[in-house]
Amino acid sequence: MEKIEKKDKKEKQEKKQLMPKKQEEELIRILATDIPVETNVFHGLTRIKGVSWSFSNAICHSLGIDKSKKIKELNASEIDKIEKSIKNPNVPIWLLNRRKDYSTGEDKHLIASDLDYQKEMDVRRLKKIHSYKGLRHALGLPVRGQRTRAHFRQSAAIGVLKGAARTKAKAPPAAAKSAAKASKAKKGGK
Description:
The protein is mainly α and 190 residues long. The protein is 52% helix and 4% strand. The relative contact order is 0.07.
């Protein structure tokens, strides 16, 4: 009996030790982004913020990696090549997401937090110089010319008032009623 219990305990401990390893193998981290190992390289690279489908295709083509190859089949050297290629891409200029940077004038490709930071700084600059786009950002309205008659109504009342709620909303409060009556009495009205 004791031997069986000890074996069961050992098996449970071994399973607990194996669980974290199995979870680690389900994801591979490329440029601070977790990518599931069952996806192919072409699709997996697009999970990195700042990498589009066309950019992912260009990276696979420039490195000579099969697009249909699974992420789990990549070795460490291929992952390093992918990371270096995304940081310093050797692709046509029209594939880059930051062409003719405002401050430096150079063409570059931004990813992850750098992309978020640069976008935020661009919006701040537009607000600071009081451009039309900056004012629309500041007011929380659409920037690219969309119509606002039916949409973009975050600050307006939500829903439709029904029945008793409608009459309460239309009727002024008691203090306002009494003040209105007093002002009419002073003017000599009814």
